[in-house]
Design brief:
Distance between the termini of chain B: 27 Å
Radius of gyration of chain A: 13 Å
Number of strands of chain A: 2
Oligomer: heterodimer
Shape of chain A: globular
Largest interface: A-B, 18 and 15 residues
Largest sheet of chain B: 5 strands, parallel
Helix content of chain B: 25-40%
Radius of gyration of chain B: 16 Å
Strand order of the largest sheet of chain B: 4-3-2-1-5
Order of helices and strands of chain A: EEHHHHH
Structural class of chain B: alpha/beta
Strand content of chain A: 5-15%
Helix content of chain A: 40-55%
Number of helices of chain B: 6
Strand order of the largest sheet of chain A: 1-2
Structural class of chain A: mainly alpha
Chain lengths: 104, 155
């Protein structure tokens, strides 16, 4: 389906996850964050979002919450403080990659 | 869409590897979806939060017909350890943590962990026997109070 974000038509799923990471930009990330209860993306948010996105682009799948906590430079506790509604899912959405498929 | 689940309270009542993991995966998965989660450990399920016992949680190879192994084979020396080792190996491939680390992960994710008072009394445990992540030892009544407004899952 197509969703308009900042006047640009983007290819998303029903929940708003971008289907084509190439359509993403920093401005779109900030807009998606605002729509999902994060008014301002801090440097810590960006660190997680970029780690999520880079991992997906390099490996073809999003990291688990475990590797996110170990390798993104942000602890699991802080991840949940930054993204209370679910770090992996929300960071993927803001990072412009498809919804993570794993159970972990 | 049906009403979204906002809160779950998961009871883990058995101490084998194949009984502990599902409850932990459900609890972690709830937090990943932004769902509030409580985990209540009772009877042998308390092994998962016992400092020493959580290091030695095994797959039940006896009385576990789904394993496809005759009971007498499951009872041979070393079989339980070997099957557990193979399971742990496969679990690690999926990036699912070993149980002690999984308990830490779930606690860090903001889930609350409790032990059942009746079970603690029955097994004569001391609160010091448990991992520091435990939020407390509570009665069944307190558990129901805490679970109020959410779903209860018994495993």
């Amino acid at each position: 389906m197509t969703t308009m974000i900042l006047g640009t038509p983007l290819d998303t799923d029903a929940e708003g996850f971008l289907q084509q990471p190439s359509q993403w930009s920093d401005e779109i990330a900030s807009e998606i964050a605002q729509q999902n209860g994060i008014p301002v993306l801090t440097d810590r948010h960006w660190q997680v979002v970029r780690y999520m996105r880079d991992t997906f682009l390099n490996t073809g799948s999003a990291p688990t919450i475990r590797s996110l906590g170990k390798e993104s430079g942000v602890s699991v506790k802080e991840l949940y403080e930054l993204f209370p509604k679910g770090p992996a899912k929300l960071a993927a959405k803001i990072g412009g990659i498809p919804k993570p498929k794993g159970c972990i | 869409m049906a009403d979204r689940i906002e809160k779950v309270s998961i009871i883990i009542s058995k101490g084998s590897l194949e009984s502990v993991y599902p409850g932990l995966i459900m609890a972690n998965g709830a937090r990943m979806e932004g769902i509030e989660a409580n985990v209540f450990f009772t009877f042998f399920g308390m092994d998962a939060i016992h400092k020493v016992k959580q290091q030695h949680i095994h797959v039940a190879t006896v009385g576990n017909p789904a394993l496809g192994m005759p009971t007498w084979v499951g009872g041979l020396p070393g079989v339980e350890s070997f099957v557990t080792y193979k399971f742990e190996e496969e679990i690690a491939k999926l990036d699912i943590p070993p149980i002690p680390e999984f308990i830490e992960l779930i606690a860090d994710s903001g889930a609350q962990l409790y032990a059942c008072k009746a079970s603690v009394d029955l097994f004569k445990y001391d609160p010091k026997d448990f991992v520091p992540q435990l939020n407390g030892v509570i009665t069944v009544g307190e558990f129901y109070e805490m679970a109020g407004g959410g779903q209860i899952i018994f495993t």
